[in-house]
Amino acid sequence: QVQLVESGGGLVQVGATLRLSCAASGSTFSNFAVGWFRQVPGKEREFVAALHRNGIATVYADSVKGRFTISRDNAKNTVFLQMNSLKPEDTALYSCARYYGTYGSAWWENSDEYDSWGQGTQVTVSS
């Protein structure tokens, strides 16, 4: 059974940088795609970024494109979310999850096709 654990969140100021980590146990990331989502209390979970199981193809939400980068370290069995130029609207609980669906059109968007959700790591950006 795959278990994912996030870390790296914190309280930062506008324009700062954070790198979130998503460490896997029970399987390797080469076997599945992984997505990062974020959620603010009272709002729907929002897609942030995804990395195909090939470790190369990436997808980003328009709101983070050009600022965030998703990557994978196979030796550490960890996926990272590098977040630059943080904005107050990036404040949320960030979670990673395993994608188990099929790779059709816009496969990354549907959070219902992810499982093994981690507990999340809080990111707070103050202005």
Percentage of residues in strands:
over 45%
Rounded mean pLDDT score: 95
Radius of gyration, in Å, reads 14 Å
Low-confidence stretches: none
Oligomer designation:
single chain
Tell me the number of helical segments per DSSP (H or I, 4 or more residues long).
0
H and E string: EEEEEEEEEEE
Helix fraction bin: under 10%
Query: Could you give a short account of the major beta sheet?
Result: 7 strands, mixed
Shape: globular
Number of strands: 11
Global structural class: mainly beta
Distance between the termini: 40 Å
3D structure, described in words:
By secondary structure, the chain is mostly beta strands. The protein is 0% helix and 48% strand. The protein is built from no helices and 11 strands. It has strands spanning 3-7, 10-13, 18-25, 33-39, 46-51, 58-60, 68-73, 78-83, 92-99, 114-115, 121-126. Strands 2, 4, 5, 6, 9, 10 and 11 form a 7-stranded mixed beta sheet that branches. It has a 4-stranded antiparallel beta sheet with strand order 1-3-8-7, with no helix packed on it. It is globular. The termini are far apart. The model has no long low-confidence stretch (mean pLDDT 95).
Would you spell out the secondary-structure blueprint of this structure?
Layout: E1 3-7, E2 10-13, E3 18-25, E4 33-39, E5 46-51, E6 58-60, E7 68-73, E8 78-83, E9 92-99, E10 114-115, E11 121-126
How is this structure best summarized?
The protein is mostly beta strands.
